[in-house]
Design goal:
The protein has five helices and no strands. The chain has 79 residues and is mainly α. Helix 2 runs antiparallel to helix 3 (37-48). The chain is globular, with a radius of gyration of 14 Å. The model has no long low-confidence stretch (mean pLDDT 89).
Length: 79
């Protein structure tokens, strides 16, 4: 089965319409952090800043970053 588009990928799609100072902050983080999960979380949190109805809990952000349909979300909650 293919991959799912994760929420953080939306940032790359709209980056050209984001204010320059905000783009600079993300680009600096990319240089320092690389392209790991940290930058994916940062991009998702940046986008979620404008979605008032969404609670940006660690669990909810993790769900937005799932890129495979075969992941059992319930299993990720178990300690």
């Amino acid at each position: 089965m293919g991959r799912l588009a994760t929420f953080d990928l939306m940032y790359d799609g709209i980056a050209a319409s984001i204010r320059g100072d905000m783009q600079t902050t993300i680009k600096m983080a990319e240089r320092q952090l690389g392209e790991g999960v940290e930058i994916r979380i940062l991009k998702a949190l940046f986008l979620l800043k404008w979605v008032r109805e969404f609670k940006a809990t660690p669990r909810n952000v993790a769900i937005l970053l799932i890129d495979r349909a075969d992941i059992d979300i319930r299993a990720t909650n178990k300690p």
